[in-house]
Design a protein that fits this description.
13-stranded mixed sheet, 8 helices, Chondroadherin-like protein, mainly beta, about 725 residues, disordered C terminus, about 10% helix, 14-stranded mixed sheet, Leucine-rich repeat, LRR (right-handed beta-alpha superhelix), extracellular matrix, globular
Length: about 725
């Protein structure tokens, strides 16, 4: 310790005038050309940082906006750390002049948009960390000036879509990290401008299918992470990545993989398929370099149907991890311990015939593939997507598990439309112009679990249409024309878990509408026109965990309808015209509620007892973009991880003092600003000096300032440059 003190003393001595310029809350080490200003409550970039500084650490301050040319006085910086600085916006040209910077960390801020020139001037930057922001959109050209960047970290943001050429300019980028976003659409040219990319992380997103076109642009990538996405199927020739060696598809929703899925990825060596829903795999054509396949955590059926895959593993000398779930005699046995004679089927196999292996598979599947469609008999998958069909084709193999009929024009689904498909698990009928699902349409689909009817023209459903599909668990009816819930269907769907009815025209939830939906856990009703929910409408759904009602026409919290929902943990009421939240509004679900969304409602008043019963279980509360001037006491919300109070015009007088003190104690970005009185408008609640005249105010209270310091802070010093004074910084925080 004494040695470090000695070095630091020498550094101060050698620094001369540079050391004398060290900003007050900072520590300057001139030997290492390093300045630390950690957790100093700074609201503007200090203006007296030594010019020769190379490493500047500003973590844990409160800048809100990084203005144009904020670092022009420190042109020798190579490392800049701005983590946890409550940054909401990077002005165009914010980093101009930092041509030597190689490392920039902006993690754990509140940046929502990257403008075209936000990162201008960083020609030497090699690592850019933007993890844990709120980035929803990246404007084309945002990375155009980062020609030296090798690592771009965009994890844990709010990205939903990647447009074409969004990463243009990143000619030497080697690792792109996009994990933990909400990506479900990727432009076909999204990755076209990344010639040097070696690793792409897309795990923990919302991709429902392999983005084949986008990935085909990555000729040099060797590792691809796609785990924790709801991907159900890997189609024929789905992955064409010439250099890919390591593919991770663990913890997805895979039910099938086509035999030639990886035929255009000849360098593939490791394939991680852990924790999916695979009952088996076909021999994988073209994967001659594959050394290891992990199937642990899949419900493998080690019958004669798995024997071709098992034989292929032996011939190709591929190491396989995983164990049998069935039949009972082989349960728990490791794949690599099985001998072919043990892998038997319950009924005699047909006698050999002089047919090709493909034809043998089709015969074994007990059906030929309909003309114009594609069937993968080993994989148990059938597809007639976008074939301009007018009638639902028949004659699929009887062991088909997944059937994809999207983007055709059927209009009517007649009775018995899917004969002989008792093993079907997943049925895709999106964008088919369907107007009528006739009684008996799903008859015989004894094992159907997933039914997708998104983007059709359905306005009503006969209960009898679902007769014969008792295992249905996921029903997606988004983007149809329903004006009310399809009454009576739930009696025939005892295993229904998830119901999607978003973006229809439903006007109310009436008594009995959900009768029979006792196992429902997730109900999505976003973007309807619901004005009323009957007090007993939700009563049958006693296991309900998520209720999404945002973007409807409710004028009050449907408190009476929330009784009897002991498991409800997430309630979304955003974008409803609710002006007043009354006392006890959430009392019925107080013991279970964890996530509450009350944002963007034009809310004018929250009664003092509105949050009665809520407490430590609440983890996130969204109140942004409303009109109230105060909120109730929430001091018992000790488990909060997210609290958003942005764009709420708080009246910063003595009545708000309890909230201000509570915010002081929170280690969270809340974004609360004063809307009145006039002298405080636009200031952060934590920084407003209007509370200093309140009875009980303690001189030097956390976040406050003495009257002398306040006076100095409210008037910019003439000696300080414009744009770096505290007064200027506070004015920027209104944005």
């Amino acid at each position: 310790f004494s040695w470090e003190v000695l070095l630091f003393t020498v550094a101060l001595g050698l620094g001369g005038m540079a050391a004398a310029r060290c900003p007050g809350p900072c520590i300057c080490d001139n030997l290492r050309s390093q300045v630390l200003c950690l957790n100093g409550n700074l609201t503007a970039i200090p203006g007296t940082i030594p010019q020769l500084t190379k490493n500047l650490d500003l973590r844990g301050n409160s800048f809100t906006v990084i203005p144009v040319g904020a670092f022009l006085d420190t042109p020798y910086l190579t490392h800049l750390d701005l983590q946890r600085c409550k940054v909401e916006r990077l002005e165009e040209g914010a980093f101009r002049g930092l041509g030597r910077l190689v490392y920039l960390n902006l993690a754990s801020n509140s940046i929502a948009l990257l403008y075209q020139e936000s990162l201008d001037g960083l020609s030497s930057l090699q690592q850019l960390i933007l993890e844990g922001n709120r980035i929803e959109e990246i404007q084309p050209g945002a990375f155009g000036h980062l020609g030296s960047l090798t690592v771009l970290d965009l994890r844990a943001n709010a990205l939903v879509y990647l447009p074409d050429m969004v990463f243009q300019g990143l000619q030497v980028l080697r690792w792109l990290r996009l994990s933990h976003n909400a990506l479900h659409v990727l432009g076909s040219e999204a990755f076209a401008a990344l010639p040097a990319l070696r690793r792409l992380s897309l795990d923990h997103n919302e991709l429902q299918a392999l983005p084949s076109e986008a990935l085909a642009r990555l000729d040099g990538a060797t590792r691809l992470d796609l785990g924790h996405n709801p991907i159900t199927y890997i189609a024929e020739e789905a992955l064409a990545m010439a250099s890919l060696k390591h593919l991770f598809l663990d913890h997805a929703a895979l039910q099938d993989v086509a035999p030639d899925a990886f035929i255009h990825s000849p360098q593939l060596r490791t394939l991680d398929l852990r924790e999916n829903e695979l009952r088996g795999l076909p021999p994988l054509a073209g994967a001659g370099g594959l050394a290891r396949v992990s199937l642990a955590g899949n419900p493998l059926l080690c019958s004669c149907l798995l024997r071709p895959f098992h034989d292929w593993l032996t011939r190709a000398r591929v190491q396989a991890e995983g164990s049998c779930t069935a039949p009972p005699a082989l349960r728990g046995r490791a794949l690599d311990s099985l001998r072919p004679p043990e892998m038997r089927c319950g009924r005699p196999l047909p006698l050999p015939s002089p047919t090709t292996p493909l034809e043998q598979s089709r015969v074994a599947g007990s059906g030929q593939c309909p003309q114009g469609c594609a069937c993968s008999p080993d994989f148990h998958h059938g597809s007639c997507e976008n074939r301009d069909l007018r009638e639902i084709p028949r004659g699929f193999p009887g062991d088909t598990h997944l059937l994809d009929l999207r983007r055709n024009t059927f209009r009517v689904v007649p009775p018995g439309a899917f004969p002989g498909l008792k093993e079907l698990v997943s049925l895709h009928l999106q964008n088919c112009g369907i107007e009528v699902l006739q009684p008996g349409a799903l008859q015989g689909l004894d094992n159907l679990v997933y039914l997708y009817l998104t983007s059709n023209r359905l306005s009503t459903l006969a209960a009898a249409a679902f007769k014969g599909a008792p295992q249905l668990a996921y029903l997606d009816l988004d983007h149809n024309a329903f004006t009310h819930l399809p009454v009576g269907i739930f009696q025939l769907l005892p295993n229904l878990i998830s119901l999607h009815l978003q973006h229809n025209a439903i006007r109310e939830l009436g008594e009995g509408d959900l009768a029979g939906a006792g196992g429902l856990r997730w109900l999505y009703l976003t973007g309807n026109t619901i004005k009323r929910i009957a007090p007993t409408a939700l009563a049958p759904t006693k296991m309900l965990e998520k209720l999404h009602l945002e973007g409807n026409c409710l004028v009050e919290v449907p408190t009476s309808a929330l009784w009897g929902l002991p498991a409800l943990s997430e309630l979304k009421l955003s974008r409803n015209p609710i002006k007043h939240v009354r006392d006890g509004a959430f009392l019925p679900v107080a013991s279970s509620l964890q996530h509450l969304y009350l944002d963007n409602m034009g809310l004018e008043r929250i009664s003092p007892g509105a949050f009665t019963g809520l407490g430590p279980k609440i983890r996130s509360l969204f109140l942004e973009s409303n009109k109230m001037s105060n909120i109730p006491n929430m001091s018992n919300f000790t488990g909060l991880e997210i609290l958003n109070l942005r764009d709420v015009p708080f009246h910063c007088d003595c009545q708000l003092l309890p909230l201000r003190r509570w915010i002081d104690k929170l280690n969270l970005r809340v974004g609360a600003t004063c809307g009145s009185p006039a002298e405080a408008r636009g200031l952060k609640v934590k920084l407003s000096t209007t509370f200093q005249t309140c009875p009980g105010w303690r001189r030097g209270e956390a976040g406050g300032a003495s009257p002398d310091k306040t006076k100095a802070a409210s008037k910019p010093s003439k000696k300080k440059r414009s744009g770096k004074s505290p007064g200027r910084s506070l004015k920027k925080s209104r944005a």
